[in-house]
């Protein structure tokens, strides 16, 4: 009788290995398919705009401070190196749009140079970030 009870207890155990395998595979799938956004790395005071549209597919952000500093991928970049850095980011993750977050007191000439560098890197769609006004 004792042997029969032990066998019943052994047969009642549920093997969790297949379920853990499926959960692990799903976790890997979600990590691989997640898009990672390359942010500029600083906060700027954006100008106000009455009419604006949302960009949903942007992965690259460039911030321009009022002092003329340019930030890309959480590090400071010279104007001459913007195109090369964008090309590197595009090789990692293709994007159609680059968003420029220029401070409201940033010099117009610096913003135009950055936009030229973005065009030089092969991006035709450039959006300027603004806050709701």
UniProtKB/TrEMBL annotation:
Transmembrane segments: 12-37
Keyword Transport set for record: yes
Top-level division of the source organism's lineage: Bacteria
Pfam families: ExbD (PF02472)
Membrane topology: Single-pass membrane protein; Single-pass type II membrane protein
Keyword annotations: Cell membrane, Membrane, Protein transport, Transmembrane, Transmembrane helix, Transport
Keyword Protein transport: yes
One example of a Gene Ontology biological process annotation: protein transport
Locations listed in the record: Cell membrane
Signal peptide (UniProt feature, chain positions): none
GO molecular function, one term: transmembrane transporter activity
Recorded GO CC terms: plasma membrane
Family: Belongs to the ExbD/TolR family.
PANTHER family reported for this sequence: BIOPOLYMER TRANSPORT PROTEIN EXBD2, EXBD MEMBRANE COMPONENT OF PMF-DRIVEN MACROMOLECULE IMPORT SYSTEM
Protein name listed in UniProt: Biopolymer transporter ExbD
Native source organism of the sequence: Thalassotalea marina
Gene of this entry: exbD
């Amino acid at each position: 009788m004792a042997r029969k009870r032990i066998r019943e207890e052994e047969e009642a155990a549920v093997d969790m290995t297949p379920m853990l395998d499926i959960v692990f595979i799903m976790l890997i799938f979600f990590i691989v398919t997640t898009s990672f956004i390359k942010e500029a790395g600083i906060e700027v005071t954006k100008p106000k705009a009455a009419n604006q549209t949302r960009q949903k597919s942007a992965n690259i952000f460039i911030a321009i401070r009022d002092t003329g500093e340019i930030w890309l991928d959480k590090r400071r970049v010279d104007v001459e190196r913007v195109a090369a850095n964008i090309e590197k980011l595009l090789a990692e993750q293709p994007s159609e749009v680059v968003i420029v977050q220029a401070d409201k007191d940033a010099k117009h000439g610096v913003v135009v140079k950055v936009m030229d560098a973005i065009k030089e890197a092969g991006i035709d769609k450039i959006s300027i970030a603004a806050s709701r006004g």
